[in-house]
Amino acid sequence: MAVSKKAKNVGKNVKGKVKETTGKAVGNESLEMKGEAEQAAADAKQAGQKAKDAMKH
After folding, report:
1. How far is CA 10 from the centre of its chain?
2. Over the stretch 23-56, which tens digit does the pLDDT of each residue have?
3. Which of 17, 28, 50, 54 has a CA 20 to 30 Å removed from the CA of 1?
4. Contacts for 45 with CB less than 8 Å, ≥ 6 apart
């Protein structure tokens, strides 16, 4: 996986975790759900990149 894409996915995952944690702390379910969705999207993209890389080797 390209380093820049991996860093971008990790950044999105961290951003999602921050949103989720903040949402839990302030009782904002919408923000919490957005954070969880962001993490899931980042994980899916990362898994897709890993599969793509595996096909190259």
Report:
1. 6
2. 999 999 999 999 999 999 999 999 998 888 888 8
3. 17
4. 5, 9, 12
Q: Which two tokens stand for residue 28?
A: 């904002």
Handedness of CA 49, 50, 53, 55 (dihedral sign): negative
Kindly report the pTM of this predicted structure: 0.83
Name the nearest CA neighbour of 36 among 10, 16, 14, 57: 16
CA distance 26 to 2: 36
**Maximum C-alpha span of the chain:** 46
